[in-house]
Structure formats: structure tokens, C-alpha cells
């Protein structure tokens, strides 16, 4: 662990200690605290009382972030072996909020079948991995969803040569879907209620479902529309494959943590909300560090840590949100860079537009106050 990171951890611990004690420090007191030798062990013990996960992450010196094992636009490695993507940027922003360093994160690629097991065993601290928020998962007592970072829905990808205009025309077709997912259940519901007979081709993983479709082992591939767009972008001639118009489900995707550690869930929840709020307030990756105390609205001042003790309440520094935005950009920047119209996926904002955008969506940052 580097000296700078170690000092930040100690100071975060000190902030939590004082917050729990109900103390308020003056600016002079904070400056003195920054120059005094830290009592890291004691402070980490105090953090552990309110959040064992946060204490473990701080003591380790980096975040363990569970991501997709390979989904273009969301989580994948480039030709240099560097992790890229929409979910990856949220991991980096979380690390920056914790340590002031977006590189203080280790990415753990997980299949759909592995993700919850790894989380429950503590082998990852958080899942930023296209995971649908459902009642059965939420009420299991094992998982806590910390928010929604992408509104998706399930669709169907077919070859243009089949000349299909609707999923209702798939009677008798072979439909590839991966097991252990909401996609399998949604497809079953869709076809059964419409009395459409299809031949499901159930594969263990998303990748095997995609490869089977490419080998023409099935006539249609079903999955989240974003995942289908990612799969199509990698095909030899993407124009020969079309998304049918039906969206048959609501898939609210978001970060997941282990149940029973609400303070850690709050850290993840408010990192997400900070990135969403930054877009609404016009704060970008380039501008966020240039805003000075007293500049901008009260909302801007609170987000950037110039007013209030919002970071210390979470067990973070006062600059947590500033560091998160500086690491990955605001929500809109993360979207456009990885999956938006300027990316290989070319997805519209749609439901993932800000609530107050000219073409409004469902993205809404909770107030920091």
C-alpha cells in the first residue's frame, strides 16, 4: 500500500471516528489532523463496527469489483489487457471515492452463475455487472441492490435474411438463451402467454448462446437489448442482423452488495447518485476540479464537499464525489463514451436520459443535502 493511499485511509478513518462521535471540526483542526500521525488501527476498528466491508476494503487498499467476463461496451479488456466499459467506469469511480485513486481496483470477471456466490463469499466487494433487480433477488435476504445505473429490457436478435418483423413470427423457431438468468424466464412467459411454440436452446453462458447463434445453431438470440447490441457489434457484418421491435421485459440493472452492511450499500448508492447528479449540474470530468469554494449553486458546493460533512458520514473524505467524477466523468460522459451514439454499440439514451432532459428519461439523482 502506497504512502498516499495509506494516509488517505487513516484520514478517512479519522473522519468516520469524529462523525460517529458527533464532532464538528473547524478548517484549522482539519489541517492539524492532516499533519498528525494517524491512528489507523483504532479508526479501522471503529469503521468495522459500522461497516465490516468498508473496513476490509480500506485495510486491503483496493476495491474488488465483480464485472462481466466480457461484454463489449460494459466490461471487456482491450488489446493491451486494460479493462474498459460502462460498468468498469463505475468501478473506477467507486475506487476514486474510496482512495482518491481510480486505479485502486481489481476487476474480477464473473459469469452469471458465479456472481452471487462470489459476492456472498466475500470474494468481491460489489457487483457492477449488468444484474437485474427483481423481487426474488431483493427479498432473498442475501443481496442489497444499491441503485439503478441502466434501464434495459429483453429483446430478440435475428438474421436479416429471415425477413422477420416481429417476435410473434418466431413460431417453430429455435431460440438461444443462457441459463441462470431472467432472460430464460422472460422468454418462456412471452411465448407461453401468446401460445407461440418455439424450441428453446438453453446454453450455460451468454458467450455460448452468442456463439451458437453465430454457428446458426438457433434462429434467434434473446437477451437484454444492450447485450444483443454488443453481440451484434462484434459480428462480421452487423448489418445482416436486426433487433426485432418487441421489448418483453423491464430490466433495471444496478450495483449489488451483500445484505447486512447498510453503510457499505450507502457508499455504493451515493457514488452512483453523485455521478448522476454531476451530469444534471453540468459538472464534467474536465471541469469538476476547477470549481472553487463559493462557486456555483448550493447543490454544486455540497456535491464537491465545500459544504456539509456528507463524505465523512459515509466514511469517505470530503472530496469523495469530486474524485469520483474526475475519475470517470459524469453519468452522461460514461454512457456516451462506452455505449452511446459515438460508441460501437450506438445506443440512444432513451430511458437512461436525465429526468429533465428535452427527451426525458428515468435517470434521477437523489439530493445530497
From TrEMBL:
Keyword terms, alphabetized: Signal, Transport
Keyword Iron-sulfur: no
Transmembrane segments: none
Ranges of residues in domain Solute-binding protein family 3/N-terminal: 62-286
InterPro entries associated with the record: Bact_solute-bind_prot3, Solute-binding_3/MltF_N
UniProt record similarity statement: Belongs to the bacterial solute-binding protein 3 family.
Protein name per UniProt: Amino acid ABC transporter substrate-binding protein
